Amino acid sequence: MKFDILTICYIVAAVTFIVGLKMLSSPATARRGNLVAAAGMFIAIVGTIFLYKDEDGLPLHNYAWIFAALIIGAIIGVVAAKKVKMTAMPEMVSFFNGMGGACAALISVIEFDYVFRAAEKMNYVHFSEGVVPGHYLAIVAGSIIGSVSFAGSMVAWGKLNGSFKDVIFKAQHTINLLIFAGVIVLAIITFFAVNAYADYFFIATVILALIYGVLFVLPIGGADMPVVISLLNSFTGVAAACGGFLYNNKAMLTGGILVGAAGTLLTILMCKAMNRSLTNVLIGSFGGNETSGGGNARTTGGTYKEISISDAAMVMRYANKVMIVPGYGLAVAQAQHTCHELEKLLEEKGVEVGYAIHPVAGRMPGHMNVLLAEADVSYDKLLELEQANDALKTTDVVLVLGANDVVNPAAKNNPSSPIYGMPILDVEQAKTVIVNKRSMKPGYAGIENDLFYQPKTSMLFGDGKKVLQDLINEIKAL
């Protein structure tokens, strides 16, 4: 009876994962979707702890270790989530994803150790005699994919917080492919190896997979990191699904499949948004670092011009339509609430206001949507790339708040630019463009922005939050 109840717990958890994921597709229901999926995970965890029995009919017994780990992990997770700044959200996602990959890999390592010791007790000569091929495939796939996800996510986390830099060297693609081939070869050798040495080959497989995970992410440029995070997230999901298969855990299997599938689809969508090749991601050549020559050269030339707070306020106050383009700078300044205040003030004055959202604005898919949702900005005002570009054609004033690479015309007219071909927000179609930045330094991709030097563009320098507050005060006085 208890086994039946546990199965029901897993089925309920699996259903909540599916429902929660569906709800995450809309900003209006995303918060509830997260809670629904979390409730399902809670049911699965409680059911496993108190209802699970092994093949001998014995329940779990090491409750002290289990609850100690749960309490410590919960405290760390809650504190980290409470304290993290919105600007650091991409690196937190990468770090947590890496932890998930490590857990999935450890599950496979522990299962291999169990099978290996069982083969030793049976005095099998070859390791393959003591394990079903399908079972071993799940073990080795989970350990390899989980290790790559863990190592790659740690490098991505370091890159996002500035600890690591891009590393490129000769024959990098070839070396990466050779290492990956070595991982596969070692995994095959482990299966057919003499049992006494199978564990050594397996350890070598995991170590080489960790090395590949590091080398896989090292050359990838900053502007392309959102795609990499999505891909690594899908890896973690697949590794977790392997763990679910090993333990016949339907909740883990379903959750892993959902994460793997969703991560893969998101990766494809991000590749499309960045106009990159998924093949290049897989062989570690993803990013614009290899472009040399005139990648940073301006195509427009000339000098930039500044605009005062009072002039900017006047232009926006008497415009019919204003479009706000949020970027990483807005997140750094924690100015989302002030931005919403400006939006409401302009609407009170009869100005139509919308937000143009690029898929990878803020260094992470959906980053700007989350940021603005925190400030209670209406979801109806958030326009995606194609919608925004249509609206920009009839916009009087565009206010760019800390966005850089996603509004750079070089992506369309400079073939030597590393971001050439990347779909961007066509803000130059508006009558007037006002760009708020702290300075003229390049964006995350390290590329100078042609937009800043165009005749219809004016620069409004300063901290995003202070500039917005000054604009609010000036508009109120008009």
TrEMBL record:
Q: Where is the protein localized?
A: Cell inner membrane
User: What EC class does the entry list?
Assistant: translocase
Q: Under which EC number(s) is this enzyme classified?
A: 7.1.1.1
Q: Where is the NADP transhydrogenase beta-like domain?
A: 7-473
**Where does the protein principally reside?**
membrane
Is Nucleotidyltransferase among this UniProt entry's keywords? Answer: no
Membrane topology type: Multi-pass membrane protein
The GO molecular function terms of this record are: NADP binding; proton-translocating NAD(P)+ transhydrogenase activity
Instruction: Quickly give the catalysed reaction.
Output: NAD(+) + NADPH + H(+)(in) = NADH + NADP(+) + H(+)(out)
One GO cellular component this record assigns the protein to is:
plasma membrane
Q: Which InterPro entries match?
A: DHS-like_NAD/FAD-binding_dom, NADH_DH_b, PNTB-like
The Swiss-Prot or TrEMBL record describes its family as follows:
Belongs to the PNT beta subunit family.
Cited PANTHER family: NAD(P) TRANSHYDROGENASE SUBUNIT BETA (PTHR44758)
Stated name of the protein: NAD(P) transhydrogenase subunit beta
Gene source species: Hydrotalea sandarakina
Lineage, highest ranks first:
Bacteria, Pseudomonadati, Bacteroidota, Chitinophagia, Chitinophagales
